[in-house]
Amino acid sequence: MVFNAEVSDAPEPLGFTDGMISDVVLGQIEENPAEWVRVQGTLANVLLDLARRPNATLVRAGETTDAYTHPLYVARAAHQGNIHLGVCGFHLTGARITVDGRETIASKYQVLVGPQDEFEWRTPSAAADMVPVKGGFLEQDQFRVELVFICRQRVGKGIVYGSVDLSRAYRGVNLDAVGDYEVLVRSQAPQDQDSPPLEACDKAQVMVGKFYPDNHSAHVKKGDRYSTAVYFNAPLKAVSPIITGFDILDIGNHGTALRMRLYPQNIMKETFILNAETWGETYLYHCGVNWAAISEPTWRCGVLNVDGGRSLWKVRGTFSPAFQSPPMVFACFSGLDMTGSFNWRIHVTSVDHTGFDLSILKTREGKVGLASISWVAIPGEEVLKRKNAWIGRFSTDSLSADKNGEYTGSVKFGFEFRRDPKIFVGVDHIDFTTDRHVRLVVSTSNVSKTGMDWRIKKWDETVLKGRVRVTWLWIVTNGFP
After folding, report:
1. I want to staple 264 with a disulfide (CB 3.0 to 4.6 A). Which of 242, 286, 335, 392 is the partner?
2. What is the pTM of this model?
3. Which residues form a coiled coil (predicted)?
4. How far is CA 138 from the centre of its chain?
């Protein structure tokens, strides 16, 4: 029996020369290699791969005993001809395994996935009629390889993870010397990949909609505000936060200032007021406002406001309460106040379970009075189970506009939603000249469970100096618009 102890001290990384476990080796030790998913680096890097697998989720091994009780998942890694069992988590940079009695981090590893109810932990006596999960092998000599299975044992306040030869354990050999431990077994036969999807729990409690001000360009005045009352199709269970973003912008070049702010007010269970306003010398001829009411209890959202004259801001957004593991984060502009240069972009970095860094960059000649950024954080584990949301981007990069000033493309999601999603789009990078009108339209079409088409269009005399980048949030909603 081999146990891999999960300890509190930071392990020393090893440079594994073996790389990933080969498909040939995998075929020797298991009937279904697809249950182990390849990972390099943080576990967040495998979210898209897991999302392609219907009803798949990470197999829970246990949790840490620190203040945040991070969840741990079953993992394995190759080293010097053997496959070693261990654990991984969103808070780790790799898989924790033990090699020659020393715990280390493997940057290349595999994580076990499967249907949510397929696996469970049992004592050997309780697992006698069940199928154990094959974890790897240990080379005994040049002619003999011993299969090992996944087990765990509670020691003090923690749990150690490792492998066991169940061919002997099932016959009761040396059980007294080992003490009580549990083996990972299949609680039922693996589900077919085409099995029916979940019905009720996979819909996010989110409402999305759009607002287009009803105004004529001949009546536009500088510093105008446009407001409308939005009524939900059905009352919310509680007053929910609302985020905004824009997909249409038509601003005149009077005074070479780009000033616009989108915001909700008077939010109630049945309705709220949605505003699009400008100030100073800015003329807002038209805009398109996307809004989303976030009622999903496990999501976090908010608006970050920054001001000042620096070329780079870095502000910290915090999650309250904190997540158990790093989430996916969506961010877009909901307010702009710039002169001198219309080149502005945002980046989300350093995401962990407590928050994220938001970097806002502009050119040296640009002057900024205000930036408002709407953001949404979605737990990655939940997305894998419910497949009800995803985040991505498209932009004018490496594309040439046609004679009408249009950029077009398609997005293939990489896995199939269980239902047709709703789309919330926003802009996180613009770069226009200041001596012309800023006229921009972003639209999506042919939205399905697997992808969509998109279009970015400028018109009239608008000049795009660099690029426009659009960030999108796909949501399978709970049936409301």
Report:
1. 242
2. 0.66
3. none
4. 36
- Judge whether 310 and 275 are in contact, CB under 8 Å: no
The answer to whether the beta carbons of residues 79 and 42 sit under 8 Å apart is: no
Paired strand residues for 251: 284, 438
Q: Measure the CA–CA gap between 463 and 432, rounded to whole angstroms.
A: 6
Distance CA 420, CA 449 (A): 5
414 and 363 housed in the same domain? yes
Give the position of tokens 């984060």: 329
Q: Do 239 and 333 share a domain, yes or no?
A: yes
Please write the tens of the pLDDT for every residue from 180-228. Answer: 678 888 775 444 444 334 444 578 889 999 988 766 666 788 878 888 8
In degrees and rounded to multiples of 5, residue 252 shows phi and psi of -75, 160
- Please count the residues of the chain: 481
What is the C-alpha to C-alpha distance for residues 120 and 61, in angstroms, rounded to an integer? 9
Tell me the C-alpha distance between 481 and 475, whole Å.
Answer: 11
Same domain flag for 169 and 235: no
Of residues 141, 470, 461, the one with CA closest to residue 330: 470
Judge whether 247 lies within some domain. Answer: yes
Task: Residue 228: give the domain boundaries.
Answer: 206-475
My answer on whether 89 and 145 are in the same domain is yes
Residue 358 burial (CB < 10 Å; 0-12/13-18/19+)?
buried
Give the count of domains, the chain: 2
Look at the alpha carbons of 18, 22, 27, 33 in this order and tell me if their dihedral is positive or negative: positive
- Kindly state whether residue 200 falls inside one of the protein's structural domains: no
